[in-house]
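Students often ask what a 'structure token' actually looks like in practice. Rather than answer in the abstract, let us consider DUF2087 domain-containing protein, a protein of 172 residues. Its sequence is given first.
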Amino acid sequence: MGLLADPTRLKVVAALALGAGTIEEVAAASGLELKDVALAARRLARGGLVRRDGHVLELVTDRFAAAARAAAEAAPAPEPLSEDPAESAVLAAFVREGRLVSIPAQRSKRRVVLEHLVRVFDVGVRYPEREVNALLAVWHPDTAALRRYLVDEGLLSRSAGLYWRSGGWVDV
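Now compare that with the structural description of the same chain:
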């Protein structure tokens, strides 16, 4: 995959992926000079990413699939987000890299996600709405929906424009 770190080689691979089949077609599609395409194709062929037969080029897509599988196998298993396996499964489905990819439509799953999310709020601290929005925006862009769900589920309370944590588990 290090071969793709070079912008010229990346353009060659992109042009091949989009259907170019010769050095001339790659040059036309990528805007690169023929000599640059030829040099990049030679290097990509030595690396096993391209088959070259004269001016005809073919992307070896199997190598990309193999590299993706190898990377997935080498990656450490993600840390569970909860000690409860059922909760962990729900959180794994909706939380990726510390962000909420979508708000669950099913109430029981949404409750699990909200109980996880409410932990960003400290017990005993009153937050203005702007700060609540800033904390929730780290998780998901629809801060109004999250704020409303947290209040509706009794995890946050609000009065006079201030919010505070009023439910959920507290780590001690």
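One point worth highlighting: Helices lie at 7-17, 23-30, 34-46, 61-74, 85-94, 107-117, 129-137, 143-152. Ask yourself how you might have guessed this from the sequence alone, and why that guess would often be unreliable.
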